[in-house]
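Handout, page 2. Input:
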Amino acid sequence: MPLILDQPKVEQTPVSLKDINKARLSRPKNDDGSPLYPDYMPFYDPLEKVEDLGEFEHFDPGHRADPSFPNLLEGATKFFDLSPHVGTEIHGVQVSKLDSKGLDELALLAAQRGALVFRDQDFGDLGFEKQKGIVRHFGPLHIHGWAPHPAAGSVEHMIIYDHKDDLRVRRSWAGKSPVQWHTDQSPEPQTPGTTFICMLESPSTAGGDTLISSSVQAYYSLSPKFRKRLEGLTAVHSNNDGAAAELKNGKDAVMRREVLSTEHPVVIVHPVTKKKALYVNPVYTKYIVGFDKEESDYLLNFLYNHIATRQDFSCRVRYEAGTVLVWDQRITNHSQTLDYPVGDRRHAFRLTPLANKPIPAIVEEDDGECARDVQRVQLNLC
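Output:
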């Protein structure tokens, strides 16, 4: 028999839940509980009014971009896709240091990948005017009809704020799911394009992520014949529900602009990539023009469910302080997640450039598109 030696006993100290909690990565917070960025605290003025921007000519900077991205990715230490169809994370690049060529390439890559995530950015420390100067490269800045802006000024900065000292956002979603897929401000005649969110302060340990879904893949994952049925349809988008919710704040309600209602194509084309995308969302899209209500509701609910449940063309963006998310709203839907404890602070700002009027997809006859779709052919779906 082989000789069996006694093994020395190793004393194992049990790890307590308290020790585990200490080891967890915590996000930056002030010891006294005050906000990290007090100049960006939300300000509500019920008397404030602004003028609509009106029609303008838009030239997408992605048209000028070098498709090899030499100016955008020159200093990148690493970059990787968050999912096959949407989302790319880039490290080692400061958005604030990009010149006009780099910003052109940023627009193109956002149009191709839908969403770009930049870490450890100094963007939040630049000040209002420099921040707006960078984002205006992509179009004139939108002013929200009722969402807060900083007390220190800059009506173009839309403040995203949730904390125990201001539960306005929480209350607006009380009794329903806060996960609501949408494209910001789709009722605008000229809708948002390359949009920026800068995270100033995240919930203590986790949560407060943004979900992003590719509207391009949402379109192309439908059968070719069904896609053809959608092309040529238009739908009405309105922010009347959001305005009604804001008016529930009574004398404190902010209503800077009139309620918007605009007709847009159900399938649009991106002006740079020429890719087609679904352009409907359950927050703002009200009905399909020319359909009876039951028909419209049935089709829109199918499309909403298609967007919400197809996680194979979505990604989740996790924030840290200093994270900047840049995404193209013409080809994506997104949603917040209020999954962190009530009272914890989530603080960010959004700058939203408006872009082109949505371009309708051209209605085409069946030209053998299914036969050219390799996956559908392999699965005998044609």
